[in-house]
């Protein structure tokens, strides 16, 4: 069985080696890039990259630019962004660009591997021919396709998973803790803005049907055709 390929992009060779060593020990094939231009060159040449790990601050092209271009070509591949910054604006910018995970340096390599495994597990889980329909929204799990009133809607990997969870639990109030545990699939050491940011973007992409996702004050969210 072929190993899953992970592209690790960081201008610090020691950081690349640290991440690569842990991922290699976990059974992945690691491809390294030292800057954004090299990363995009590899991304376009190799069509079977399973996941990207990007540093933010890099020469030539930074992580933001790489993420934006990758997302324009592929909205399904999981992306983890690494940064030395702890600014909330940077994290929100990453989510706006379609980043699936955001990890601030310094970090535990074991936690990074756990998040990689969770993302890959979620991206390959449940590839059945199940189609969900609710309130004008149709979701095809196998094709990873969403339509709203017949029009295609492009969602990032995490937005798609979030919508699946909402559509599989219509009418139920879902706490932020439940959403994190199910959609992110690991013990999350952050706060609720991760969910809130993704819900905001999901509502926007669903257009008029974004009103199906209600805020349940003091709890979380609920997908319902009626009032929350």
CATH fold topology of the largest domain: Rossmann fold
Portion in helices:
40-55%
Report the radius of gyration as a whole number of Å: 18 Å
At the fourth CATH level, what is the homologous superfamily of the largest domain?
Answer: Response regulator
Short description:
This protein is α/β, with parallel strands linked by helices and 228 residues long. It is 41% helix and 22% strand. The model has no long low-confidence stretch (mean pLDDT 86).
Layout of helices and strands, plus pairs?
Elements: E1 5-9, H1 13-25, E2 29-33, H2 36-45, E3 49-55, H3 63-73, E4 79-83, H4 88-96, E5 101-104, H5 109-124, E6 131-134, E7 137-140, E8 145-148, E9 151-153, H6 157-168, E10 174-175, H7 176-184, H8 193-205, E11 213-216, E12 220-223
Parallel strand pairs: 1-2, 1-3, 3-4, 4-5
Antiparallel strand pairs: 6-7, 7-8, 8-9, 10-12, 11-12
Helix pairs in contact: 1-5, 2-3, 6-7, 6-8
How would you characterize the overall build of this protein?
This protein is α/β, with parallel strands linked by helices and 228 residues long. It folds into two domains: 5-124, 3-Layer(aba) Sandwich (Rossmann fold); 131-223, Arc Repressor Mutant, subunit A (Orthogonal Bundle). Helices cover 41% and strands 22% of the residues. The chain contains eight helices and twelve strands. It has helices at 13-25, 36-45, 63-73, 88-96, 109-124, 157-168, 176-184, 193-205, and strands at 5-9, 29-33, 49-55, 79-83, 101-104, 131-134, 137-140, 145-148, 151-153, 174-175, 213-216, 220-223. The strands form three sheets. The protein has a five-stranded parallel beta sheet, sandwiched between helices. A four-stranded antiparallel beta sheet has the order 6-7-8-9, covered by helices on one side. The chain has a three-stranded antiparallel beta sheet with strand order 10-12-11. A hairpin with a 3-residue loop joins strand 11 and strand 12 (220-223). Helix 1 (13-25) crosses helix 5 (109-124), helix 2 runs parallel beside helix 3 (63-73) and helix 6 (157-168) crosses helix 8 (193-205). The radius of gyration is 18 Å and the shape is globular.
